Amino acid sequence: MTQVIFTIFGASGDLAKRKLYPSLFRLYKSGVLSEHFAVIGTARRPWTKAYFEGVVLDAISDLTTSKTEAEKFASHFYYQSHDVQDAGHYVTLKNLQDDLCATYETGHNKVFFLAMAPEFFGTIASHLKSENIVDGLGFERLIIEKPFGTSLETAKALNQALSETFNEDQIFRIDHYLGKEMIQNIFAVRFANVLFEHVWNREFIDNIQITFAESIGVEDRGGYYDKSGALKDMVQNHILQVLSILAMDKPASFSSSDVLPEKIKVLENLCIPDETTIAKNFIRGQYQAGRINQQDFPAYIDEPSVDPASKTETFASGVFFIETDRFKDVPFFFRTGKRLTEKGTRINIVFKNNANIFKQDIQQNILTIYIQPTEGFSLLVNGKEVGKSFAVEPVKLDFRHDAAALGNSPEAYEKLMYDVLNGDATNFSHWQEVKASWTLIDKIVSTWQADKAPLYPYQAGSMGPVESFDLLEKYGTSWVWQPDHWYRERGLLQ
Ligand SMILES: NC(=O)C1=CN([C@@H]2O[C@H](COP(=O)(O)OP(=O)(O)OC[C@H]3O[C@@H](n4cnc5c(N)ncnc54)[C@H](OP(=O)(O)O)[C@@H]3O)[C@@H](O)[C@H]2O)C=CC1
Ligand SMILES: O=C1O[C@H](COP(=O)(O)O)[C@@H](O)[C@H](O)[C@H]1O
């Protein structure tokens, strides 16, 4: 049972309502939070405590049938109307914290969650220090959300501002993909199976393919997305984080002090291509009108809050190389985009073929990790076809979590909040990782911005521009995962 006061900046916002309150409630239900905790929500809206409790009750309504339980939980929530730029409000905030610390015996432990635009992070951190809200009396941890900067330069400035108040080991940079069950499972697959551990290198792996496909468009986030694009929205953070777990060397132990340096090593050893290579190896696309599941969708430029002349990419694909002994020259292909055929997040590890003694081609072994919507893994192995003659055929060993197990599995934010309470930074992005990833992403952005690579159109409902398929062909391979219609069009699926 943890003693703590949470202060949530941006308590009236979307993230707080959709993710944070439900996650805190799940931690409460599981007993991680019990009597000795309080939550202070702040935002400019002039809400009362009663109104705030109503917002929280609404946010958790799907998670319990017990009114008493929900109300008891919500009674721990307090609200302070507060403009983060106004220094005077931090004095009131400190008084409220001190009162709640005494009432709930929270032992001076504090978690600050900045669920608002990053432009405010520096101001908040500096006031937390100047008003002695961060006072060193208990544990004090800061949780921040992406985007962590919009370039290396802005990320550095942001980090500098935060580090005036918090040390690196107090800053928890959320990447919600690191809270996903099957992303965390990569550690188990790689390091708990002798079968894979010793072949997880350039001698045995031909290439790795990371697909983060979404069928949704930009929804109501056109304003944010149009300034960001797929590369900054998904690749700089989620895809490079996942790549670092796939490519890292074995850590001495499964703890943040051993895992993070290994992940950092991967990201710091990413090859930074020159402009010509970027133009060849990194594809950007933008969706045009199209159909998904019998429904018509408009082109990206016709979405609300998007500039009708926008050149923002809604699809990014490319190939990374890492200069480590383990993976030198092994291509790590990736693709991610909006309004693709279907939602599908998966990783394919394609192994090399061994010397073939048979009079037929042999299928490469492929390990597929299904992140979402289904969770599990499959392994493509070769076996003998049943019959008198000798023919080799691929067989798929398939494991998916069952629905009951999934129903009980904690959500990404719940797991990550739990880690923060335990001071465990394994599943968070370290500053060195953020810095290394921006170094590479900046280079791609500047090449694209100099119009050195075309912005390819693709139809909503497809798997992105054909150039993304051509890229793999240039490397003598192809995307392992194709949507069902791809197989159907080739007569491979009824
Ligand atoms: N929503 C999501 O799923 C995700 C969000 N994020 C990131 O999380 C952060 C929050 O996102 P989201 O919740 O969607 O944003 P919202 O716009 O929904 O919420 C912003 C919050 O900030 C408050 N706020 C704005 N200005 C001030 C101010 N000057 N002083 C005090 N409070 C202020 C708003 O309240 P009020 O107007 O009452 O002041 C509101 O509570 C962003 O950085 C976003 O990029 C990241 C990943 C996913
Ligand atoms: O961070 C983001 O992630 C979501 C996709 O997350 P998922 O958990 O649904 O796979 C993406 O839609 C959004 O644009 C991006 O900001």
Automatic annotation (TrEMBL):
PROSITE patterns: G6P_DEHYDROGENASE. Substrate binds at H176, K180, E214, D233, K338, K343. Signal peptide: none annotated. Pathway: Carbohydrate degradation; pentose phosphate pathway; D-ribulose 5-phosphate from D-glucose 6-phosphate (oxidative stage): step 1/3. It catalyses: D-glucose 6-phosphate + NADP(+) = 6-phospho-D-glucono-1,5-lactone + NADPH + H(+). Keywords: Carbohydrate metabolism, Glucose metabolism, NADP, Oxidoreductase. GO terms for molecular function: glucose-6-phosphate dehydrogenase activity; NADP binding. The keyword Repeat does not apply. It comes from the Bacteria. SUPFAM superfamilies: Glyceraldehyde-3-phosphate dehydrogenase-like, C-terminal domain (SSF55347), NAD(P)-binding Rossmann-fold domains (SSF51735). Residues 8-185 form the Glucose-6-phosphate dehydrogenase NAD-binding domain. GO terms for biological process: glucose metabolic process; pentose-phosphate shunt, oxidative branch. Residues 188-479 form the Glucose-6-phosphate dehydrogenase C-terminal domain. It holds the Pfam family G6PD_C. Gene3D superfamilies: Dihydrodipicolinate Reductase, domain 2, NAD(P)-binding Rossmann-like Domain. Its EC number is 1.1.1.49. InterPro entries: G6P_DH (IPR001282), G6P_DH_AS (IPR019796), G6P_DH_C (IPR022675), G6P_DH_NAD-bd (IPR022674), NAD(P)-bd_dom_sf (IPR036291). NADP(+) binds at G10, A11, S12, G13, D14, L15, A16, K17, R44, D83, V84, K146. NCBIfam families: zwf (TIGR00871). Catalyzes the oxidation of glucose 6-phosphate to 6-phosphogluconolactone. Belongs to the glucose-6-phosphate dehydrogenase family. This is Glucose-6-phosphate 1-dehydrogenase. It comes from Pseudolactococcus reticulitermitis.
